[in-house]
Write a structure and sequence with these properties.
Ribonucleotide Reductase Protein R1, domain 1, Rossmann fold, 5-stranded parallel beta sheet, 3-stranded mixed beta sheet, 12 helices, binds adenosine-5'-triphosphate, binds 2-phosphoglyceric acid, phosphotransferase activity, carboxyl group as acceptor
């Protein structure tokens, strides 16, 4: 049996070489799953032929990259990038925001899966917890949806202001406190995470958090209103869907006003905006932007504590 020796927080560990584990990381580098398993078997055979009994993880990565370069240079580059991302001392915190229905949940799930990030939370969940802690009298707008929060404003805004956006801002500003807590905990614990939802709005999360190299924010948009509407139809058709289509259609105008606000905030704070037409393109845009940070061969962050 071939043993692989790795190191976590300065402590060495050993585990048996697993074709399945290696194949999974190759699929993250966009290798076809069947080919990934065959390739992993070839690596195992190569190590056995060389009489390897124990191999350090870094040496195994080099063996894989060397063979990948001979077979598919593009995947070799992707594989190298994932390894650099995962070697970084700081956890990867990915924030995916956008108005209701543009696809933040779906895209977050796919990005987390591609990067092997096991932790994902929606800001709706964070809001749900906050609803249990703060009373409706104290924080009335978080008991609403983001696009109906204006209905619970204690002081109605002056007529010249957009009441939907005033309510949305109040709602998001409150939930952002919970979002910041999750980001801080992820950084403290060294846990990579994807946080998604309508409460990820540029300018509402503390600058000292979003300005970190390992924190990446993206805003998803849909320019075409009919395509946006279609997303609600698509979701509400799914078995597990519990949220009524009618409500989204009744408030679709308000949702689009928040959509426009996301775009203006993203432009103001120079946050990447990705039109979420095609899932694969969206995911690749996000991963490409993240890997730019880790692109150089020698990029390894020192833990910032
Ligand atoms: N790029 C895409 N192409 C086609 N369908 C998509 C795409 N992205 C998401 N969808 C579909 O659109 C619907 C809405 O997606 P999703 O639930 O992720 O939106 P959301 O932004 O999380 O909404 P909410 O914030 O209200 O939960 C789902 O049925 C999803 O499968
Ligand atoms: O508040 C909102 O905009 C949405 C986000 O998912 O939540 P809900 O539709 O469940 O109120």
């Amino acid at each position: 049996m071939i043993m692989v020796e790795g190191e976590v927080s300065g402590k060495k560990y050993r585990e048996p070489f697993s074709k399945g584990v290696l194949a999974r990381s190759l699929t993250r580098a966009e290798m076809d799953p069947n080919k990934a398993y065959t390739f992993s078997s070839q690596i195992e055979a190569q190590l056995k032929k060389e009489g390897v009994k124990l191999i350090k993880l870094d040496d195994l990565v080099n063996v894989v990259r060397q063979r990948l370069k001979e077979e598919d240079s593009e995947i070799a580059v992707q594989y190298g990038l994932w390894k650099r991302i995962r070697k970084c001392q700081d956890p990867l915190v990915i924030l995916i925001g956008g108005s209701s229905g543009v696809g933040t949940s779906s895209i977050a799930f796919e990005v987390a899966n591609r990067l092997g990030i096991r932790n994902m939370i929606s800001t709706d969940m964070i809001r749900e917890v906050m609803r249990k802690i703060a009373s409706k009298d104290l924080l009335p707008t978080i008991y609403e949806s983001s696009y109906t929060a204006y209905r619970s404003l204690r002081i109605p805004p002056p007529p010249e202001l957009d009441e939907v956006l005033i309510g949305f801002r109040d709602h998001v500003d409150t939930v952002s406190v919970g979002v910041e807590a999750v980001i801080e905990r992820s950084i403290t614990e060294g846990i990579s995470i994807v946080i998604e939802g309508v409460h990820i709005v540029p300018g509402f999360i503390r600058e000292d958090l979003v300005s970190r190299d390992n924190v990446h924010m993206f805003i998803l948009t849909l320019e075409d209103e009919e395509v946006h509407k279609g997303r609600f139809y698509s979701r509400c058709r799914q078995q597990w869907a519990r949220r009524p289509l009618e409500r989204y259609m009744n408030y679709f105008g308000a949702i689009r006003r928040t959509h426009k606000y996301f775009e203006s905030q993203a432009n103001k704070y120079h946050v990447p905006v990705i039109e979420n037409i095609d899932i694969t393109t969206t995911i690749e845009s996000i991963i490409e932007d993240i890997t730019k940070t880790y692109g150089s061969e020698d990029y390894v962050t020192e833990s910032k504590g």
